[in-house]
Amino acid sequence: MSLIDSFSHNKMWSNIFLFALLFSTYNNVAVQSFCVADLKGAQTPEGFLCKPPTSVKVDDFILSGLKPPTTPPSSNSSKITLTPAFVQQIPGLNGLGFAVARLDMDVGGVVPLHSHPDASEMLIIVRGTVTAGFIAADNSVFVKRLRSGDVMVLPQGLLHFQLNSGNGKALVHLAFSSSNPSTQLLDVALFGSNLNSDLITKTTLLDLSEVKKLKAVFGGSG
Question: Which of this chain's residues are annotated to bind Mn(2+) (predicted)?
């Protein structure tokens, strides 16, 4: 067999393999169009296990709770209330790769520096004025004062924040590129954990007394 014939032969089998792979993928999608989360079962890195198809109901795909919160934002120190529509609230989101939430912010309300390790976020300002921003991997800072109708994207894994910078209440709709976005708050991670205070002083250059004070506020130890 010549080199050209060999190349053509291998290319033919590559095309057959690609076709078979695509056909297999199509069949899998056709057999199972969704995987409604079994919230009582174990959660895997890919999401929750699927409920038996016979137990799936239309309510698994619906949430009627993105309404004004019953607990006002002013009742907590951050002056915010987050109402999630994640897989725990809508089991039908399992494996679909997106979720939404409602963020109510009282005057002076703030979402402190935090990150979503496995999701990008989109802010949609519905009412009020919100200053939001993120810090890129090269420590570039991107901050913008947003008003009703503005949209801002916060890339996955980067530290970011939101604060109500207006004179009235603010309402923000959030969208995430994960059905179950995890969140890590910087202050809570440092001062709400049992990370040794001496290590925190050495890695943050804060005074030990200040670290102890912040740990008392956030409930940390060590």
Answer: 114, 116, 121, 160
Residues 163 and 212 in one domain: no
> Whose structure tokens read 């016979």?
54
What value, to the nearest 5°, has the Cα angle with vertex 213 and ends 212 and 217?
A: 115
DSSP 3-state assignment of 58?
A: helix
pLDDT tens, position by position, 67-120: 888 776 767 788 999 999 999 999 999 999 999 999 999 999 999 999 999 999
Task: Tell me 39's DSSP state.
Answer: T
Per residue in 177-220, pLDDT tens? Answer: 999 998 988 888 888 889 889 898 988 888 898 888 888 888 88
Q: Which two tokens stand for residue 87?
A: 């897989």
> Is 160 annotated as contributing to ligand binding?
yes
Residue 156 covered by a domain:
yes
Is position 121 annotated in a ligand binding site? yes
Dist. CA 208–CA 4, nearest whole Å: 72
116 labelled as ligand-binding?
yes
Interhelix angle 197-204/208-218, rounded to 10 degrees, is 120
Full domain range(s) for residue 130? 58-182
d(CA 69, CA 150): 23
